[in-house]
Write a structure and sequence with these properties.
76 residues, alpha+beta, Pemi-like Protein 1, Chain: D, 2 domains, two-stranded antiparallel sheet, 2 strands, 16% strand, elongated
């Protein structure tokens, strides 16, 4: 395998399939000792759509906030 003129490399199909590297998959490069390592970038979860979803349930249980519930569960 060779690096092309513009610094591009084609990842063999078997490796792309094995590691789930499809179009638009984000990857990162890092140096480990004297090697260059390509790593699939970890996905981040967008939890903003879940904000406030359990407020009513916690209120029914008698808690003003999730923090109050957690404090109670932890015995604080």
């Amino acid at each position: 395998m060779k690096v092309g003129e513009r610094g591009q490399v084609t990842i063999p199909k078997k490796l792309r399939e094995r590691f789930g590297l499809g179009p638009q998959t984000e990857v990162e490069f890092r140096v480990e000792r004297d090697s260059l390592v390509l790593e699939k970038k970890a996905k981040t979860l967008d939890l903003s759509k879940w904000k406030g979803r359990s407020r009513r349930s916690f209120e029914q249980l008698g808690y003003k906030s999730v923090d109050d519930f957690i404090d109670d569960v932890r015995g604080r």
